[in-house]
Please model this.
Amino acid sequence: MRKPLVAALFALAIAGAGAAPAVAAPVTAPAATVERTAAERADARAASPALQAVTLAGTVALSNCSGSVVRFPKSLDTDPALVLTNGHCLETGFPAPGQVIVNRASSRTFGLLNSAGTRVATLRASKIAYATMTDTDATIYQLTTSYATIRNSYGISALTVQDTHPTAGTAITVASGYWKRLYSCNIDGFVYRLKEGDWTWKDSVRYTSACQTIGGTSGSPVIDQATGRVVAVNNTGNEDGATCTVNNPCEVDESGGVTVRQGINYAQQTYQFPACFTTRNQLNLSASGCTLPRP
Model:
């Protein structure tokens, strides 16, 4: 999940890479780039003949992480817009194991990016609609403006969150608003339990090795290249090969067996969220089909 800021900056300075997650080094993010090696391009070609060109449009930069403006399949243009990022990207710090935050006031700001990675607006939250690091690692902020206003003012539409479980082998792009970079690979598989320090996440997405996400990419939307829909939120990776420690998550199978994959990165699925946000994009943890952890 996260290394201290100084450590993150030092790691980037000497290596230019590392494993995923949270707080990014306090440096100026570079101009938009597309991180695609030959292997990544081969991954993409093999996955589907009809892949879409994913851009940075609709992503946002936070002070310490990445995120995106998202909507659900039943959201209306007049609904207040939402921003998706990680639970560990909260401005108040990491939620404790078992802690679920709902409908807490927030005035956090987000830099909205266009397709080229240029900041075109500053959006502001009205509240933290939902946040937790239990079972998943996600925060959803409600904004002070609607989807229609954002589109009409800046020409940018929200990304839609897929409401079904993704499949292994899917070609994906991790779109980082903080670094203004795109990382492309495939879903390698799903992890029964992913344990990192005191936190445990369920049914996590494991990337193929081509997605070498770094500090500051935490909270990035994971986008299905065939549909353009968000299927997960990027959150962590095993940096040093240690077992189940902070910055070194381990995979735990149904029988309790532990596997460590140094250099491999992970995300948390998001298909559970649409069922929990109903009329006017308001959180309803008692809604039919909502399985998110409750306070």
Notes: The longest strand covers residues 181-196. Residues 162 and 231 are 6 Å apart (CA to CA).
